[in-house]
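Homework help board

Subject: predicted structure for assignment chain

Our instructor gave us this sequence and asked us to write out the predicted structure in token form, then describe one feature. I got the tokens but I'm not sure how to describe them. Can anyone check?
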Amino acid sequence: MQIIRNMDAMGAAIKKRRKEMGYTQAFLAAYAGVSASFLSDLENGKETIQMNKMLLILQLLGMDLFVDERG
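My token output:
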């Protein structure tokens, strides 16, 4: 499990997993129904992405998101 503390780390993890699965940005974007520019922004750590789209990408890549409630 990897701890993600910012959007740069989230984007890097998504990009790494996409490449491990052999997907191009264009393929994954089309599969998820998002624009290629959205996926690029996500992988580059843009902080103003739409969370619902990011969660869909994570799901399609077989990735889970956990929330630490330690306050």
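Reply (TA_rk): Your tokens look well-formed. For the description, you could write something like this. The helical segments are 7-20, 25-32, 36-43, 51-60. That's the kind of observation they're looking for.
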